[in-house]
Specification:
The chain contains eight helices and eleven strands. It is an alpha/beta fold. The strands form two sheets. Strands 5, 6, 7, 8, 9, 10 and 11 form a seven-stranded mixed sheet that branches. Strands 1-2-3-4 form a four-stranded mixed sheet, covered by helices on one side. Helix 7 runs antiparallel to helix 8.
């Protein structure tokens, strides 16, 4: 997930959750959190419990976030793919906004798009992750990989605008999800597999060392260490859905 993608994802996340963005550049933003998002992100259970007991006036936190660590201003929290804060926001998406329905604010016929944001993690003794934002046009079957980029400049609302209307989809949601799943498989298949071959080579070296150490020794720990080495090095690929939704867009 590139810095630009992270930045657009954060803007969409905060806007969708009605947080006020008080200042924003191409690399930084200041955000006034809502009560719900403050509770999810700021880890202040005692503060909110106290307010509920006393009836005090809530004061939500403001975040200053930078998606370019090299030029982050003083006091800005540095956000990148894999950072704790971004992982926390992904979890927030799964808990409170796993799926959404948004309409482009234009008085025309709107095309239905099924969109999914997901992370693909390639894991062994090392790990790398890839963020994908895929959407399927439920009328003609077109698929785009960079959906979050395509909608970032559009005005979207949870309510359909006056004089707008939605076009009837020809592809069902179930079939659409299957097509997106298959498309993610093609992304994985295109990935260079050097990482997995190198992990297997490192695993083989450790197995040879383990076998040489336990030669002619009957020890129960051998099986435990053998299993630990395999768990550490064996290549695995995990796909995790962050969130998704239906977007009705002008053509």
């Amino acid at each position: 997930m590139q810095a630009e993608q992270v930045h657009r994802f954060l803007l969409d996340y905060f806007r969708t959750n009605q947080c006020e963005i008080t200042d924003a550049t191409n690399e930084e933003m200041s955000v006034e959190l809502t009560i719900d998002i403050d509770k999810q992100l700021m880890n202040r259970p005692f503060y909110w419990h106290y307010l509920e007991k006393t009836g005090g006036e809530p004061k939500t936190k403001q975040l200053r976030l930078s998606t370019n660590p090299a030029s982050a201003t003083e006091g800005a929290e540095k956000i990148h793919f894999g950072s704790p804060r971004l992982h926390q926001i992904f979890n927030s998406c799964k808990q409170s906004a796993t799926h959404i329905r948004l309409y482009e604010s234009k008085p025309v016929g709107l095309y239905p798009w099924l969109a999914v944001n997901a992370t693909i993690s390639y894991q062994c003794d090392q790990q790398k992750s890839q963020f994908v934002s895929i959407a399927l046009n439920l009328i003609n079957g077109d698929i785009t990989e960079d959906f979050i980029d395509g909608v970032s400049g559009r005005t979207l609302s949870p309510k359909i605008a006056n004089l707008s209307y939605t076009l009837h989809p020809f592809i069902t949601l179930r079939s659409g999800m299957k097509r997106i799943e298959n498309y993610i498989h093609t992304i994985i298949a295109k990935e260079n597999d050097d990482w997995s071959q190198q992990a297997n080579e490192r695993m083989e070296k450790d197995l040879q060392l383990l076998n040489s150490f336990y030669i002619d020794i009957d020890d129960d720990k051998y099986d435990q260490e053998l299993e630990a080495i395999k768990n550490l090095y064996e290549p695995k690929i995990h796909v995790q859905i962050v969130n998704g939704g239906l977007f009705y867009l002008a053509n």
